Amino acid sequence: MKKRFNPRHALVLxxxxxxxxxxxxxxxxxxxxxPIIFLLLFTYVFGGALAGGSQHDxxxxxxxxxxxxxxxxxxxNIGQNMNADIAKGVFDRFRSLPIARSVPLVGAVLAxxxxxxxxxxxxxGFGYALGFRIDTDPLKLLAALGLAICFALSFAWVxxxxxxxxxSAGAVQGVMFLLVLPLTFGSNTFVRTSTMxxxxxxxxxxxxxxHLVSASRGLMLxxxxxxxxxxxxxxxAGLLVVFFPLALRAYIRRA
Amino acid sequence: MTxxxxxxxxxxxxxxxxxxxxxxxxxxxxxSVLGVLGPNGAGKTTAVRILATLLRADAGxxxxxGFDVRAQPDKVRASIGLTGQFASVxxxxxxxxxxxxxxxxxxxxxxxxxxxxxxxxxxxxxxxAASKQAKNYSGGMRRRLDLAASLVGRPSVIFLDEPTxxxxxAKREDMWDVVRRLVSDGSTVLLTTQYLEEADALADExxxxxxxxxxxxxxxxxxxxxxxxxxxxxHPVDLARYGDLVTVLSAVPQTExxxxxxxxxxxxxxGVDGDEVLPDVxxxxxxxxxxxxxxxxxxxxxxxVFFTLTGTRSGESHAPEEILS
Lengths: 255, 325
Known about the structure:
The complex is a heterodimer of chains A (255) and B (325). With 255 residues, chain A is mainly alpha-helical. Chain A contains 11 helices and no strands. Chain A has helices at residues 7-23, 29-50, 55-74, 76-88, 90-95, 103-130, 138-165, 169-185, 198-206, 208-221, 226-253. Chain B folds into 2 domains: 4-224, Rossmann fold, CATH 3.40.50.300; 230-298, Elongation Factor G (Translational Gtpase), domain 3 (Alpha-Beta Plaits, 2-Layer Sandwich).
């Protein structure tokens, strides 16, 4: 006999996580300074060499990719936080309450929505200051951001799973970094896939992050996007189906 | 429903090769206080975590409020409060936020959750600190907030895992008053402790566990009778008079049949049966010309309880000869 999941409980715990974030503002560095640094570095280090010497053209190409990259990097935070929370014993309290087991995890992921929203605003705002302009319309831009956040909330479960599995918050960072690095660089974020060797193209083409980058690039700059949006949603569903149960099981086992 | 609020039979639990519980039975009548007495590592916390549905026993059954902890964990969770050994409050939230959050998770409307939080903060003398983050609380305040958090849902069974460990004596008395009030409100309390004094002060019945098994179950009165009620400890100024001291103490009528024990610094401790033994002891010591610099009458320590019940010291389980040599 299991307690049914109550969305209101998840919102109560999401609010708790937001309050905790606001109390430790340094937690927002990865969603504020990180996109700025990435945009500056990649635009001006690679831009001159990669896009026929036009940093502006490269910025147009790069920004949707940096959005996806920072989302993947930012997901590390939630796993670390949850690992630390468990170590402190707060979860013992939640476990002894008549709420569904998944509530504390879902609450934490929902709270991350606010971080990803900030990330989107920062990336676009700073990109705009550097000269980035969308070639489509604001609705498509919103669709791109919605898709990105949707992917972020799905990918966060990988981090939650790692956070529930490894022993320390530091180890969460180590493991997640090993995962995130090949996913972000082994993608079409920085250069066109056609410039890569065949074996790498094969990886890039199945990398869910590439689909997200292609879809948001299309939505911001124009071009066909239907298939890429479909693949992105399929990736989100895949991540959820695999990592939500894994994370939940790891959490329940970690008594 | 039976009149037992807690009924556990044959609980076992292993962590890897370590056997934390090797078949523990626990029973608490509704509205009573069950003291679970044992040293560190005896299995007290494991037993509490199983009863509070945080852990699954490898074998055995446990009913709390008539619900099976394995089959109906949510029914159990809805009727219990748990205060762990390590205060599980959220450091970044204020006292009020901590309690309101619990209230909302228990499906209280926001207004009712706020009212309940304010009521509990007042009861636990935390009203002034209500809007401070818990990370700024003292150890005692955190304990109180943690206990308050476990009472938000007005649970009928409350688990207190070593609620006074690390508290100073005055704070300990405060905590005892809280437990007494909970019981007078009709709650059942299971309290684990390392202090016989605490179990004696609060519990209706005491279960003593060691190495994951129950080694005694009795009322405080019965337990004290078994372990010899009060203890008399005397330390002579002149250690050469040790033998005379033992002779004098053994001659006191109330110590008849008791074996004197000694510690590494020359004190003699002996069980006594009556309360009014001190004047007689003092008179006999004076008559024998033995000057003492310590003379005390006290309840047996956990160590002494264990020594009497099992013949070995708690914790390290040294043989008595080993301690003397």
